[in-house]
Amino acid sequence: MIRLYDYTASANCFKVRLLLALLDRPYERVPVDIFAGESSTPEYLAKNPAGRTPLLELQTGELIAESNAILLYLGEGTPFVPESLEERARVWGWLFFEQNLLEPNVGTARFWRLTGRDVGREAEWESRRAAGVAALEALERGLAGREWLVGDSPTVADVSLYAYTHIAHQGAIDTAPYTEIAEWLARLEREPGFVNDLVDYPPGARAGSATGSVHDRAS
Fold it and tell me: Please, where in the chain does CATH 3.40.30.10 lie?
């Protein structure tokens, strides 16, 4: 059975759990407490030199890091990864968009706001929040007149972008104007097997409980 090393409050980790649920694929979950430094131990760094979660361990012992790479691996041979090169390239494009424009901004705005790390760095936080708004506006345009981002059924692009988009409000982003996004989120939530087990950061993750940007420990 495959193993998933993850942290429950990370939306990057959640997106992998979501795809596994949609695929109805069994796996063993190995919790990694990033606030306790469990992703920085010599043992974990031997598995993933970047010290990030999620991390997928195959039955062969092979390891796959980075959330979107894991989605592509798990979705291969299923409808979640299209067969045609043109549609696959469009999926890749949305995955790059997610990791370059949406996740670093929406995810950081959420993390800082929930853990109190926005206090004393309001200008930097507002810059992240504003960039998150711009990313959502782009996603809204990309969904105009479409049920899914690519093709006629959900792909790993939809799964990946769902993870941080559906909690953008936790980063103080008003999502009410984005009607295309709201309908798209609802469609994915109606898919057979859908689960949402993402949790908020625990009390121990409040400001001062960890150093550095813990958000960066989840890829």
Answer: 3-79+198-217
